[in-house]
Amino acid sequence: MSRTVLILLFVLNCGLILFICCSADRLLVKMTLVSNATATGALCLDGSLPGYHLDRGVGTGTRNWILQFEGGGWCNDLPSCLERAKTRRGSTTYMNKLATFSGILSNSSSLNPDFYNWNRVKLRYCDGASFAGDAMFDNGTSVLHFKGQKIWEAIIQDLLPQGLGQAHKALLSGCSAGGLSAFLHCDNFAHVLPKNASVKCLSDAGFFMDEKDISSNRTMRTFYDNLVTLQGVEKNLNSKCKRFYSHPKLCIFPQYLLRFISTPFFILNSAYDVFQLNHILVPPSADLRGTWRRCKLDTANCNTTQIDIMQGFRRDMLVALRHFFKRARRGGMFINSCFAHCQSESQDTWFADGSPTIHNKTIAKTVGDWYFNRRNSKQIDCPYPCDKTCHNLIPTTSDVFSL
User: Fold this and answer.
1) Which end of the chain has fewer surrounding CB within 10 Å, N or C?
2) Which one of 53, 145, 185, 341 is the catalytic residue?
3) pTM, 2 dp
4) Strand partners of residue 356
5) Is 341 a catalytic residue?
């Protein structure tokens, strides 16, 4: 009898049994707070202690580590940061104390064949600047701790004596704002680990573009400029990159930073990333009449002109990645043509029946081949709508119009 039929029978007889059956496949990992973070000022926006979730490796994976940055957008002005500090995005007080580990964090060999038995860590995100800020706001009434860089350093220092300091293999990854964190902290991660360790990095949906929007404004550049200034990020950006560009704040953008990262890197991104389409290419400020509203909610509603504009965004992303594709011998890439955002943490898109593929290779297989040097792992999909394996996202209205 199949598992589906068994669950159906349980539903008919007892809802409680259904809960037990379904939750048996979920790996829930408790949060660990960094107890000594106060001494270094490594605090969340609201002053609470930062945290992470660690599931220990077993067998051949006991000296291998995956660290996964949590995503969740940014705050680039005082009102948004003050509001964020009252939520799970700015305080561990409001976070779930158990995290579900799936996709690249799964402990199942059938669901995560290359990394299932490694030590797997989720770094909780509570600073609003991709773990990169170092500043503080205190007007006598309200206090905000912009201490993402110190949070990153405090978590690493907490993990090193737990075995990370003796790692044989390590992979630093992240999704969305956490994917940006992987770009920003990749080389630093490699430097704190043993010199003979195999250290690599992966960004999922973190290749945020410095692109003009449909009204010819650089909305995302302005947003990041304000973010870098408010949270004191510039001092923590790559020094070689900052010397190369006359506008150092540009080095928060992966397309400018990438050439200065020396650690082997893998870029997992949709060429039609729904976050970037909604906030970089067509932000609310550029579509005051709502011409794009129906298109952004469902690509089936897009007209020919809108599709052409999105194809232009894809072309610009591939141009920005051209040097990496041709020159980065140790680099990997999976750029598919799905309307998606973050594909490594969800089991359906990471490795499962019907997962997205390019040339019949899943994301998990491509990443594994790259990490273990099994074969060339640079995959670029044909343009929309050729890919029939996509798990396209249909954003809600609030997803489209909020950051």
Assistant:
1) N
2) 341
3) 0.92
4) none
5) yes
